[in-house]
Amino acid sequence: MGKREELEKLHAKWKTECACELRATSLQAVPGDGSAEAEIVFIGEAPGQKEDEQGRPFVGAAGKFLAEMLSSINLKREGVYITNIVKYRPPNNRDPLPEEKNACREWLLGELRIISPKLIVFLGRHAMNDFFPTEKISNAHGKLLIKAFAGMPTKYFYALYHPAAALYDGSMRETLMADFKKIPKVLEKIGV
């Protein structure tokens, strides 16, 4: 069985077995999307309204901005994998709660184990704090974080501000774009 089939099987399993309470208020699960062979996985926090409607991560304004940034470093959305910590939309796009993150954690870890990326890029503090609970995004953005986790396919992580936050704050947008443009150098540094 190839990685694509493994991911499809994983998503089918968790769509029925995930115990996240957000299932009750969401239209559908929003599993990760993109290349099963990706060297880079981008992790956001949770689906928004457009994602909940379409069943794909990062399809709203933040997703459009993410696609522009990918293009700026000669990557396509189809060549990377994009997912979220939480697979269901929190009501009114509120921050996901710790128990919601925990309920979706094995689903996320399953995606990461199958894809086995060389680099994981956090889109925002929620994704980063799920792996690095004491880090502050204001200090960690644009930096390579190196830490080995049991059962994790990579030890290389890179933190960015969330594209949605940057859409509302012009100075953050410039910082995010500058940090994003460092990704090719990060990949070079880790030998990709």
TrEMBL record:
<keyword id="KW-0004">4Fe-4S</keyword>
<feature type="domain" description="Uracil-DNA glycosylase-like">
    <location>
        <begin position="31"/>
        <end position="181"/>
    </location>
</feature>
<dbReference type="Pfam" id="PF03167">
    <property type="entry name" value="UDG"/>
</dbReference>
<keyword id="KW-0378">Hydrolase</keyword>
<keyword id="KW-0479">Metal-binding</keyword>
<dbReference type="InterPro" id="IPR005122">
    <property type="entry name" value="Uracil-DNA_glycosylase-like"/>
</dbReference>
<keyword id="KW-0234">DNA repair</keyword>
<dbReference type="GO" id="GO:0006281">
    <property type="term" value="P:DNA repair"/>
</dbReference>
<dbReference type="InterPro" id="IPR051536">
    <property type="entry name" value="UDG_Type-4/5"/>
</dbReference>
<keyword id="KW-0227">DNA damage</keyword>
<dbReference type="GO" id="GO:0046872">
    <property type="term" value="F:metal ion binding"/>
</dbReference>
<dbReference type="GO" id="GO:0051539">
    <property type="term" value="F:4 iron, 4 sulfur cluster binding"/>
</dbReference>
<dbReference type="InterPro" id="IPR005273">
    <property type="entry name" value="Ura-DNA_glyco_family4"/>
</dbReference>
<protein>
    <recommendedName>
        <fullName>Type-4 uracil-DNA glycosylase</fullName>
        <ecNumber>3.2.2.27</ecNumber>
    </recommendedName>
</protein>
<dbReference type="GO" id="GO:0004844">
    <property type="term" value="F:uracil DNA N-glycosylase activity"/>
</dbReference>
<dbReference type="InterPro" id="IPR036895">
    <property type="entry name" value="Uracil-DNA_glycosylase-like_sf"/>
</dbReference>
<comment type="similarity">
    <text>Belongs to the uracil-DNA glycosylase (UDG) superfamily. Type 4 (UDGa) family.</text>
</comment>
<keyword id="KW-0411">Iron-sulfur</keyword>
<keyword id="KW-0408">Iron</keyword>
